[in-house]
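Thread title: Can someone regenerate the structure for this chain?

I was given the following input by a collaborator and told the matching structure tokens would be attached. They weren't. Posting the sequence so someone can regenerate them.
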Amino acid sequence: MRAVTVIPAKSVSRRLPGKNLKPLAGTPLFLHAVNLALRAGAFDAVYVSSDSPDILTLAVQAGAIGLARPPTLCTDAATNFLVLRHHVAEWRVAGNEADIIVLLQPTTPFRTVDALGAMFNRFAADAEADSLVTVARASRLRGVVENGCWLPEGEAQTGGGRIQAMRELHEFTGHVVMLRPAQTLDRGSLLGERILAERLPTEWPDIDIDTPEDWRIAENFAHYLASGPTPRQEARA
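Best answer:
Regenerated them for you:
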């Protein structure tokens, strides 16, 4: 079984320009994902997919393999499905098949090696699973607005007028996506049908950097980590 990591790191970001090269705690944002994957020691290769020569150069210097991405796959319409399918096709032409792909977005930099390794072991051991994703419980009631009215999602109105939960909802967080290309990409899907749910580890903050406000939150959290013990270390004390 060959397992690889892919870190998508294009040069253009509409809401936060240059974010993948922007230093967070002294390290360019995308390199946090690269360093995590390399430290995990569970993957046969760590790839960085980008259209930026600067990003690709830094990736190679860090120990990863650079994947030059065509400009057509760097637009807002270019999905992870399209990017991964493109690179898988390139690998196959070169005779390099990947049985498992671990997709690590640079925008969720606060992940730990142990938890990532446990997720990978769970997914690798379940050959029937098409993919694995991290999820978090939805902390607020959600719904849609139609004709000026709010319709709760997955909720029911009781006779007393109180909203009662019918099902516990979970949101996709994007911290980790693992997939088997033969069971997903080859069938026209990123995640397939049997998707393992991995609850977000307590030591992983639900921070996804997309805006300047997100960046400030990430900087504050990075400062917290640098100035004190991690939640896991506190639990061991």
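DSSP finds six helices and 13 strands in the chain.
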